[in-house]
């Protein structure tokens, strides 16, 4: 791995990859395997390398049959239908279908780069057929990619944020990066931007969310501030995606401001009810299967007073989901639980009482759209509705946990950036979060961010290497 002592400012690389996560490494490896010389600039220190990939667990890819770790087939058509469902039909259809087709090769390709899989985890995600889980999680997956990069002779520099890009009419010329307190110019024939979104830039988030963004918790890296994204947009690259849309889940309100990761996420919404600070419910907790709805709850909580909410359930549900890092708050009665949560006890008792009165009997099955529902309750609970009556009672306080933003650069089927006039950039490609908004306009399906990163990384890396040769 390159350090400053080995950095030669006169060298012109074939491919410069800006970023250090899954998408960046897939691009770097793909380009290197095509014969290109590659430099990766990771803005974070080595210990924190990899962006949000460090916190992931699985990847959602199309596949034709069961494997040692996947329980059955998951067709291109079904994956596309799932994408349409979570985005409300709003996606770049040709690009989405192309990426889904490419995803069929990714599981094997990642294995060839040293990544290993394990059987899926249990709980509410029920992903054993659709998603491949990384053995050791995202950090192990990332370490495997870095080992392969090193073996292939890819140069990587840490603590090397890019502070400026020289772009001339859609052609990348050079980048300026800082390392050890000094600035250095890096020249390359092609650029792959894989530096993430702007989720850790609270000031930028406030432009769209107002003061509510102060109460957002950032699940992943504090280094994704959107610096490269903003430079590209200012240089005439066409933007895509809604700046207010993001992957945002409900996470434990006691989590740290940054880098709390996946262990602060809460998957127990379907087992209880969610109330705001006024002790009233505000959305259907059983709208759809959890992997297709968990990423809407951050936005829902963000729209509540003071961006705080509480998941409330009883003893019958305590062991049905993967818990948070923090223990639930518990009390022998709903009234006492309200006191611990600083909620109006009378209102909370009425909210729970009205909900219980509306529950209709059915056969409970959290892995499917069961027939346990409510009647005469607003909002309804469409599935998995059971009375909250078995003491003791439990609650988790939750806040919006932002994973990544959907504003990005527009790309074509080669992952090549498009300029504002619609023409392809001469030598600039994008991969991962920085271009995810082409496919994800809103919503989320578990594991699809890793799919976009891996697929677009391979596409961008191959395209950049070919471009450099020409």
TrEMBL record:
SUPFAM superfamilies attached here? FAD/NAD(P)-binding domain (SSF51905), Succinate dehydrogenase/fumarate reductase flavoprotein, catalytic domain (SSF56425)
For this UniProt record, the keywords arranged alphabetically read as follows: FAD, Flavoprotein, Oxidoreductase
Keyword field contains NADP: no
Name any cofactors this protein relies on: FAD
Gene3D superfamilies per UniProt:
FAD/NAD(P)-binding domain, Succinate dehydrogenase/fumarate reductase flavoprotein, catalytic domain
Q: Fetch the Pfam families from UniProt.
A: FAD_binding_2
Which intervals hold domain FAD-dependent oxidoreductase 2 FAD-binding?
14-439
Q: What is this protein called?
A: FAD-dependent tricarballylate dehydrogenase TcuA
Species this protein is from: Pseudolabrys taiwanensis
- What gene makes this protein? cobZ
């Amino acid at each position: 791995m390159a350090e400053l002592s080995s950095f030669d400012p006169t060298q012109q690389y074939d491919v410069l990859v800006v970023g250090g996560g899954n998408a960046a490494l897939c691009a770097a490896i793909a380009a290197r395997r095509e014969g290109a010389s590659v430099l990766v600039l990771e803005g974070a220190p080595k210990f924190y390398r990899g962006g949000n990939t460090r916190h992931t667990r699985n990847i959602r890819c199309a596949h034709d049959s069961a494997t040692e770790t996947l329980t059955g087939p998951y067709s291109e058509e079904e994956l596309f239908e799932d994408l349409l469902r979570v985005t409300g039909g709003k996606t770049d259809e040709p690009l989405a279908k192309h990426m889904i087709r490419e995803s069929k090769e990714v599981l094997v390709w990642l294995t060839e780069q040293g990544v290993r899989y394990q059987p899926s985890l249990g709980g509410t995600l029920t992903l054993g057929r659709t998603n491949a889980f990384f053995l050791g999680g995202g950090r192990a997956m990332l370490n495997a990619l870095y080992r392969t990069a090193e073996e292939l002779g890819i140069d990587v520099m840490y603590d090397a944020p890019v502070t400026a890009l020289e772009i001339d009419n859609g052609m990348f010329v050079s980048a300026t990066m800082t390392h050890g307190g000094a600035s250095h110019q890096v020249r390359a024939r092609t650029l792959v931007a894989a530096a993430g979104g702007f989720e850790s830039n609270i000031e930028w988030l406030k432009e769209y969310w107002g003061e509510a963004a102060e109460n957002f918790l950032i699940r992943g890296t504090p280094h994704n501030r959107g610096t490269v994204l903003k430079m590209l947009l200012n240089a005439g690259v066409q933007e895509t995606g809604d700046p207010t849309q993001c992957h945002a889940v409900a996470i434990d309100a006691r989590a740290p401001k940054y880098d709390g990761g996946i262990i602060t996420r809460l998957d127990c919404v379907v087992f209880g009810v969610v109330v705001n600070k006024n002790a009233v419910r505000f959305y259907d907790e059983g709208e759809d299967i959890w992997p297709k709805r968990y990423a809407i709850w951050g936005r829902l909580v963000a729209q509540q007073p003071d961006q705080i909410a509480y998941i409330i359930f009883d003893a019958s549900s305590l062991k049905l989901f993967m818990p948070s890092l923090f223990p639930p708050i518990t009390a022998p009665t709903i009234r006492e639980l309200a006191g611990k949560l600083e909620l109006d006890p009378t209102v909370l008792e009425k909210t729970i009482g009205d909900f219980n009165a509306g529950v209709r009997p059915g056969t409970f099955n959290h892995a499917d759209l069961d027939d346990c529902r409510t009647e005469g309750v607003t909002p309804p609970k469409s599935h998995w509705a059971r009375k909250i009556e078995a003491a003791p009672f439990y609650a988790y306080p939750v806040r919006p946990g932002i994973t990544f933003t959907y504003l990005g650069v527009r790309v074509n089927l080669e992952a090549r950036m498009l300029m504002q006039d619609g023409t392809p950039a001469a030598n600039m490609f994008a991969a991962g979060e920085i271009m995810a908004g082409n496919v994800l306009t809103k919503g989320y399906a578990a594991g699809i961010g890793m799919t976009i990163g891996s697929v677009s990384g391979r596409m961008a890396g191959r395209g950049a290497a070919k471009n450099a040769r020409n």
